[in-house]
Design a protein that fits this description.
Blueprint: H1 2-12, H2 19-39, E1 46-47, H3 68-78, E2 83-84, H4 101-113, H5 124-141, E3 148-152, H6 155-169, E4 180-184, H7 190-198, E5 205-208, H8 219-231, E6 235-242, H9 254-263, E7 267-272, H10 284-287, E8 296-299, H11 301-304, E9 312-316, H12 319-326, H13 336-339, H14 358-368, H15 371-393, E10 397-399, E11 407-412, H16 419-433, E12 439-443, E13 446-452, H17 460-479
Parallel strand pairs: 4-5, 4-6, 6-7, 7-8
Antiparallel strand pairs: 1-2, 3-9, 8-9, 10-11, 11-13, 12-13
Helix pairs in contact: 4-14, 5-14, 6-7, 6-12, 15-17, 16-17
Bound molecules: pyridoxal-5'-phosphate.
Pyridoxal-5'-phosphate (PLP) is lined by residues 95, 154-156, 159, 189, 191, 242, 246, 271, 273-274, 300, 312.
Length: 480
Amino acid sequence: MIERIKFLQNIALQLEPSSETRAALLEKIVRYADEFIENIYDIPAYVSTEDKGRGILDSPITENGAEIDSLIDLIQHNIDRPGLNPASGGHLGYIPGGGIYFSALGDYLAAIFNRYAGIYFAGPGAVRMEHMLLDWMSEIVGFPKTAGGNLTSGGSIANLIGIVAARDAQNLKAKDFDRSVIYLTAQVHHSVDKAIRIAGLKECILRYIPMDSNYRMDATLLERQIIADKKSGFNPFLIIASAGTTDTGSVDPLSAIAQISKQNNLWLHVDGAYGAFFVLCKDEKKILRGMEEADSLVMDPHKGLFLPYGSGAVLVRDKKKLFDSFRYQANYMQDALKAQDELSPADISPELTKHFRGLRLWLPLKLVGVAPFRAALEEKLLLARYFYDEIKKIEGFEVGPFPDLSVVTYRYVPKKGDAEKFNEMLVKEVQKDGRVFLSSTMLDGKFTLRFAVLSFRTHLDTTNLTIQILKEKIHLLQSH
Ligand SMILES: *Cc1c(COP(=O)(O)O)cnc(C)c1O
């Protein structure tokens, strides 16, 4: 047996590379990453390839390993080339991604040290770091000290956590579901609809409150609907508002909604996955006012703080509510809460073991401070307004409402022919070109183009380039 153990140990030791091997691997990985970053302003935002990364399948997982060079080639060719390049400043579709370098360094350390961020006892410092970051978020949005939250994998899970907390805090029982009412608009993100279903609430009544011409929830109609529902014997329990919708970047009238929510004892969940971090900009505090009165709030560092994907967050005004829904040990006494220095993330989230997400957020914030984030966010707002002004001046363009945040909606109306088809072809041409990536949506039944700015790499030159590309493609389509 000893012989066998030693034999196995020898093979298993390949999992522990020597210092020389580590240095050699790191050098190659860093060189590959550096090359990418050095060229990031010149490479396309979108690449359409025939194979669509299929080559990765031609290289199966095998008993023995391969050389790093061949693996980097595989990654480069199949992963980092085809499709959308979210690290590009030319990504102006959907809600653009980020990927700041400092976060990669944080992730590197998190992976090496593999600190356990799920349980305070195991990783006290790691847990404190996560909670410190959540406290900072609470502070910037104006939540009280009673608030707590989680660093999640993204906004979808954050929405789910908020909605589950609402369900439990409002003491909803299965027998009440089909007479309980959730208020929202048709512009809430699809992850909200999904979260409602995962939370078991699909039998609840969903009231889609009409919106004004800016795609914001009409608070007067919301209040009227709640009163009518109460009169009819329904059980209104939850309002879901948006602090920046994905489609148009619209911010619901949060102050008025919060007022209505309180008066009627509803839970107010605000989805700020895209927009909440704009609270860092002085001017936007006004439009986001009321966000601080939410019972739960979603904000995505992998959107508004330019982090790589895998970074969402949820804040709950009263963290005890989170604990009630997500506590890990059934025999855990609530009184013990107060005696503890820190709650464990496992007690206030669906996860137990998890990626130590704090470090990838803490390191950049500590290294460069908040100022560059604040500046980048304000820059995005101004770029959206600049684009709005410029595109409006060009004959043939129709613009949507003045942007609440950093999404502009617009369409081109050709002198003759079908505007729907034309815009469909226009967005396709821009995508085919690839220098920038734009996406489209349907607004009021019309095919509409979007200009969504949120990449830290999108600047004035990208914005001007987009306008130029749009002009080029319109010319091209009209000359056929
Ligand atoms: C992106 C987004 C979500 C979903 O977040 P993920 O991080 O993609 O899971 C939810 N709500 C809004 C408003 C969003 O923009």
